[in-house]
């Protein structure tokens, strides 16, 4: 079985990271193609090739899958261990994965993924933006901590000892926490989980490839 995984610039595309992690964790045999992002939704090549005009987009053994969470669930069909098998734990994992897909809007907008950049932060935010970000971080900390402590004592990763679909969905958040130095806003157990996630070989591989992207792929900020 073969196929192709269409990605945007690794430096910026948080959704590409989510889909890529799931595909790699499942061991799918696909070719990866990275298209440099133009910014502001202006990457015409992606518009032409992806059904929802976004990345990631996976073609695999006749299947066409877009949206990161859908790709993650598809990958779990090939590697069931990527999601908990117990009914209640699986429901919990799916819920917080969907929450990441649809929520934490202020965190995603105010702290865009930009691997290798050291932003002037949070000094550049307005008081309202700071409060909105703090609200999202409080919720994030609560969501992750409850999952870590689900069985009483902290698990190594969410729902077990292995990096799975939930970690894939929250991988870009781990990078944001480190990049924007958001650790003081989160519980210590959550920060430990972030460090474990960032040390995973796939996360380190993505960062290394992002840092190696050509300078001409960089987006300018105004």
TrEMBL record:
Q: Which Pfam families match?
A: GST_N_2 (PF13409)
Listed under GO biological process in this entry are: glutathione metabolic process; L-phenylalanine catabolic process
Tell me the keywords, alphabetical order: Transferase
Q: Please list the GO terms describing molecular function.
A: glutathione transferase activity; maleylacetoacetate isomerase activity
What Gene3D superfamilies does its record include?
1.20.1050.10, Glutaredoxin
Q: Which CDD domains match?
A: GST_N_1
Record keywords: Magnesium included? no
Domain (GST N-terminal): give its ranges.
Answer: 3-83
Transferase as a keyword of this entry, yes or no, is yes
Report what the protein is called.
Glutathione S-transferase
Task: Provide the species name.
Answer: Aristophania vespae
Q: What is the lineage of its organism?
A: Bacteria, Pseudomonadati, Pseudomonadota, Alphaproteobacteria, Acetobacterales
């Amino acid at each position: 079985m073969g196929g192709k995984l269409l990605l945007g610039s690794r430096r910026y595309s948080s959704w590409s990271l989510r889909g890529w992690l799931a595909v790699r964790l499942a061991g799918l045999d696909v070719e990866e193609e990275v298209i440099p992002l133009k910014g502001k939704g202006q990457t015409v090549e992606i518009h032409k090739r992806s059904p929802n005009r976004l990345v990631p987009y996976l073609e695999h053994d006749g299947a066409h899958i877009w949206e990161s969470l859908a790709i993650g669930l598809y990958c779990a069909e090939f590697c069931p261990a990527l999601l908990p098998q117990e009914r209640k734990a699986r429901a919990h994992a799916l819920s917080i994965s969907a929450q990441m897909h649809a929520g934490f809007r202020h965190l995603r907008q105010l702290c865009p993924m930009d691997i290798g950049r050291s932003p002037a932060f949070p000094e550049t935010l307005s008081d309202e933006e700071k409060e909105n970000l703090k609200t999202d971080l409080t919720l994030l900390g609560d969501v992750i901590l409850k999952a870590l402590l689900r069985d009483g004592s902290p698990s190594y990763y969410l729902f077990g000892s292995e990096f799975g679909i939930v970690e894939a969905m929250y991988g870009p958040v781990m990078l944001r926490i480190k990049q924007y130095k958001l650790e003081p806003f989160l519980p210590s157990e959550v920060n430990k989980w972030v460090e474990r996630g960032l040390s995973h070989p796939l996360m380190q591989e993505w960062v290394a490839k992002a840092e190696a992207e050509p300078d001409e792929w960089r987006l300018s900020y105004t």
